[in-house]
Design a protein that fits this description.
mainly alpha; about 0% strand
Length: about 70
């Protein structure tokens, strides 16, 4: 394996470990939340709701994740 291939593989492993970490469900939740908010922001009149909806959904996802780890 060449040095470039090893470097690219190490770079990919870093990003997977950084983004997924110990809780892959948080990555999935964040991607889902961002997708939902992006779709809602395209609908006329829903842009202001997205400003409130995004932090509420993120806090809810974090709360569910912490509650799952505690039990």
């Amino acid at each position: 394996m060449s040095a470039v291939a090893r470097g690219l593989r190490a770079f990919g492993r870093f990003w997977v470990d950084f983004l997924v970490g110990d809780t892959p469900e948080l990555l999935i939740a964040v991607l889902g939340i961002l997708g939902l908010v992006a779709l809602l922001s395209l609908v006329a009149g829903w842009g202001t709701l997205c400003v409130v909806l995004l932090p509420v959904l993120v806090v809810a996802a974090l709360t569910v994740s912490v509650a799952r780890r505690r039990s």
